[in-house]
Design brief:
Blueprint (H helix, E strand, L loop, with lengths): L6 E4 L6 H12 L2 E4 H9 L3 H24 L5 E4 L8 H10 L1 E6 L2 H8 L6 H4 L4 H19 L2 E4 L5 H14 L5
Parallel strand pairs: 1-3, 1-4, 2-3, 4-5
Helix pairs in contact: 1-8, 2-3, 5-7
Length: 177
């Protein structure tokens, strides 16, 4: 199956994957899919509930199943959960089935963007959100970079400008993808 038109957005929570993904999909005439929303639609419950009942391991299993299926589609912009890259199989599928954009966000930006969010299971009970975000970043940043075709720093930048930069890169990319 040819996955030439797929664009996969990876990065930490608060990087803007969903916002940028929706805009990018609209501008390029592609379908937008958010893997977390897809998991919620399939299970009929929200992510925090899955974490509560099945733990992170149960959620990650569901996430891997969703990514395996979603990356087989053609003509999509897929926004992944921040921890999707923890699974080597997910990384392999994302890297081989589409153009991977790592939306890099610093810990300060993540703190600002997740400040009022209570739907982030890994932050929900955290006494020190900054420490949790810094630890997640340290563990995941090399994994994001391992599979990224493009790394964009999102700190202090608006979605429109980031979408335009992704499009410039896609349109100027010499190799077919």
């Amino acid at each position: 199956m040819h996955h030439a038109r797929n664009i996969f957005l990876i990065g930490p929570m608060g990087a803007g994957k969903t916002t940028i993904g929706r805009r990018l999909a609209e501008r390029r005439g592609l379908a937008f899919v958010d893997s977390d929303h897809e998991i919620e639609a399939r299970t009929g419950v929200d992510i925090p509930y899955i974490f509560e009942k099945e733990g992170e391991a149960g959620f990650r299993k569901r996430e891997s199943q969703a990514i395996a299926e979603l990356t087989q589609r053609s003509g999509i912009v897929l926004s992944t959960g921040g921890g999707a890259v923890l699974d080597a199989g997910n990384r392999q599928l994302l890297a081989s089935r589409g153009f991977v954009v790592y939306l890099h966000a610093g810990v300060e930006q993540q703190l600002q963007r997740t400040a009022r969010a209570d739907n982030r299971p890994l932050l929900r009970a955290a006494a020190d959100r900054r420490a949790v975000l810094a630890s997640l970043f340290e563990m995941r940043d090399p994994l994001y970079r391992e599979i990224a075709d493009l790394v964009l720093d999102t700190d202090g930048r608006n979605a429109r400008g980031l979408v335009q930069e992704i499009e410039r890169r896609l349109d100027g990319e010499p190799r077919p993808f």
